[in-house]
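Sequence decides. Our protein:
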Amino acid sequence: MYSDALKTGRKIFAVAPMIDWTDRHCRYLHRQISRHALLYTEMVVADAIIHGPRDRLLGHDAAEHPVALQLGGSDPAKLAEALRIAEAYHYDEINLNVGCPSDRVQSGTFGACLMLTPETVASCIAAMKAVSKVPVTVKCRIGVDEQEPEEALPELMTRVLDAGADAIWIHARKAWLKGLSPKENREIPPLDYDIVYRMKSRWPDVFIGINGGIQTLDQAEAHLAHVDGVMLGRAAYQNAAILADVDHRFFGEPAAETDWNGLCDRMMDYAERHIASGGRLQHVARHMVGLFTGLPGSRRYRQILSTDANKPGAGPEVIAAAFAAVDLSAESERVSA
């Protein structure tokens, strides 16, 4: 995947891993809108995979590919064991989280706090590479707390690349481990895209992707003049319709209008299967709420999904009712970029 991208100059567009958001239902929705975007799971802790409900944690629909599993952990042996277990689920990539700043993650000594111990990250990557049949990558920050990014980021990159990492995705902000909430850590530390560009200039033969604060496809395209990949997070989740133009702009597909009615039918079928297996409509519908942001009828659409999908016995017909509230003829007026 990454070596091919470097050889051909093909860029990669990805939807970022987001805890509590990018679960299998979210990824299925996103895949119905973009055939080619690289999708990431929310972070799954290695210990949970080893000792917990594996199918619930790792299961996914075949339609989700290409899909990457993001792991959390700091014990090389446990990460390797989690990766061996995950092999049966046929992910296209395994990514190590070195960027999440939450207290919960810090208490487990992984996530962004690993920026402080790059030798540990390198040991983890080496152990994962030793057992992986797919690319092993890192997603990190530019530094944490009082670290100087111009020193901390290159040191981490040097170590993980020497350990065999296939690609590095960089969230272009520091993380503050104390004093800021995870939400504040996504907004308050200033963005420094230039340092990511400089890392690409320093390692021209390494796949380097950028993440953080990217709101539009125009911005994404501008970043791709400097780096190999771009990753959208909240912007893609909160207005998933933005993904409708991804295949054309980044993967060379012919421009085409999105078949929103077809999407409605596919999501109803998916929801019906999920309900039949013991799930609830809300598990699926909650990820669809922001789909038509800005279109006439979008407020009523959100009301239906947010309210009716939560009712006992709610079925796929709620999705149909929500779609019916939107003026899909105005789709051409949406801001796809």
Summary: Strands lie at 12-15, 38-40, 44-45, 67-72, 93-98, 136-144, 167-175, 207-211, 229-232. Residues 260-276 form the longest helix (17 residues). The chain has a mean pLDDT of 94. The longest strand covers residues 136-144.
